Amino acid sequence: MTSEERLQDVLARIGDAERRAKRQPQSVTLVAVSKTFDADTIRPVIAAGQRVFGENRVQESQGKWPALKEEFADLELRLIGPLQSNKAADAVALFDVIETVDREKIARALADEMQTQGRQPRLYVQVNTGLEPQKAGIAPRETAAFVEFCRDKLGLSIEGLMCIPPADENPGPHFALLATLAEQCGLQKLSMGMSGDFETAIEFGATSVRVGSAIFGNR
């Protein structure tokens, strides 16, 4: 199958999952995860109609997305990998959405850069639902206080929450936890679910799913 055919297959599966969950059609945004793929591999997927893409690394993204964004004016680019504070300026300049705000240092760096550049990417807080030491994200019990800090102390508008459940666990309870935390914080958006579990995520209320290998094939 070509990447265009795989894209259509994923979109059909999202539509089926929305129907099963009694969700509105097209209430879930597909984020095509293009990390490690070059512009020539991404372009056919853009040509097939996909407009929202996710990348893990700021530096890698700088090598391909400025030219693609110039070529296709309506693209939306999301940072879905960990952000270092020394890359905050580059991230604010390039990304439309940053999904990995997870500590005060990053939140402060983003607030400063957004003010300096006059650019306001939409922001999500990443939650480490499995409390995995090797994984980025704020602890679930600290999420509400952190969202409040971002809003009240830094004036940041947080749009939603994001999580990556532990690979060896049933993702359902993690998705349910993220939905509960979002409700507590008064947030509408949930970025959760990847190639292997996005249908489950939609069942639990995901508003965006991050799918890479099911569209682009294995890296």
Low-pLDDT runs of 5+ residues are none
The coarse overall form would be: globular
Which percent range fits the helix content?
A: 40-55%
Strand content is 15-25%
* Order of H and E elements: HEHEHHEHEHEHEHEHEH
Count every beta strand, where a strand is a DSSP E run of 2 or more residues.
8
Order of strands in the sheet with the most strands? 7-6-5-4-3-2-1-8
Largest sheet: 8 strands, parallel
Q: Write down the overall mean pLDDT.
A: 97
Q: What is the number of helices?
A: 10
Gap between N and C termini = 15 Å
Question: What is the CA-based Rg, rounded?
Answer: 17 Å
Structural class, judged by helices and strands?
alpha/beta
Describe the fold and architecture.
This protein is of the alpha/beta class. 43% of the residues lie in helices and 17% in strands. An eight-stranded parallel beta sheet has the order 7-6-5-4-3-2-1-8. α7 runs parallel beside α8. It is globular.
